[in-house]
Design goal:
alpha/beta; 9 helices; globular; binds S-adenosylmethionine
Length: 272
């Protein structure tokens, strides 16, 4: 296996988890968005693929990038992977990491933008990267730099399995990107083809893609996550109702508020 020096790639631009979002980190995280992020059935398409990949190419270290409370790694430990690999959760939020209770999962507070391999593995240890619902945090301008940084700390042949929101339908992408812009977040969701190209451009070959359950986001939870006053929320609802139309599959009006649906795709990538 060749090595990639850890000194030449510039850090991705600094990125912090937004303070309002921290209100739902930690103890509340398991319950928000209908409990999606702590639901084994919702995670199953991803954890099943990770287990199969780990069987084919056994890693010595499995690193969950932006692993939050450590739920995915806990699920992998439950399926026996802690017996053959070290499990490491890297996240920028102390509130999220503080919620992790599984002693088989090592927790490290760090930003992925400045990631170094020495933080989680030796050069010659086999590493598997996993990630769920994190890439959109880096925004449109941050996507290529973060993918480049992740590739830079990996060795050729190592894998990166991630579940990421991206769109096949341009109108749906426009609608949900508008929602996130109106809520004042720097988050951004790419089209699926654009994400595949970004991965290839940064040294990742996409071996396979698979679907995962969409994430339902009701307007009450979004107001809590992004600290939105009722007047702001109804203004957002009016704007999106007019722009996205009544029949958008990703923006559905309810008696009170609305529900947005984030589609997910699972990408199995290999460092080339
Ligand atoms: C939507 S949550 C997903 C959590 C976890 N991956 C899961 O699926 O349960 C996004 C996570 O990314 C983390 N995060 C955001 N930006 C980060 C960064 N620059 N470095 C490390 N973690 C980051 C957040 O703290 C948060 O825990």
């Amino acid at each position: 296996m060749g090595t990639t020096p850890n000194t030449t790639a510039p850090d991705a631009p600094e990125h912090e988890v937004s303070p309002p979002e921290r209100a739902v980190h930690g103890a509340e995280w398991d319950r928000i968005h209908g409990g999606y992020f702590a639901n084994p059935a919702m995670a199953a398409p991803l954890t099943t693929l990770i287990c199969a990949a780990a069987k084919r190419n056994p890693p010595q270290v499995i690193v969950d990038l932006g692993g939050g409370t450590g739920f995915l790694l806990h699920e992998l430990a439950r399926r026996g992977l802690a017996e053959s690999a070290r499990l490491v959760n890297l996240d920028a939020s102390a509130e999220q990491l503080g919620q992790g209770k599984d002693p088989r999962v090592k927790r490290i507070k760090t930003s992925l933008t400045t990631l170094r391999r020495a933080q989680f593995a030796k050069q010659d240890e086999a590493v598997l990267f996993i990630m769920r619902s994190v890439l959109h945090h880096f925004g449109r301008d941050g996507l290529l730099p973060i993918l480049k940084r992740l590739r830079h700390v990996m060795q050729p042949g190592e894998r990166f399995i991630h579940q990421t929101t991206c769109f096949e339908d341009a109108a749906a992408a426009q609608c949900l990107n508008k929602l996130y812009a109106l809520m004042g977040t720097g988050k951004w969701f790419p089209m699926r083809t654009a994400l595949c190209m970004a991965l290839m451009e940064t040294g990742w070959q996409v071996e396979a893609t698979a679907p995962a359950s969409p994430l339902p986001l009701n307007s009450r939870d979004l107001a809590r996550c992004y600290n939105l006053a009722p007047a702001k929320l109804s203004q957002i609802q009016k704007t999106l109702g007019a722009e996205c139309g009544e029949c958008s599959p990703v923006f559905v009006r309810a008696a009170r508020g609305f529900t947005a649906y984030l589609p997910f795709t699972i990408f199995t990538c290999v460092a080339v």
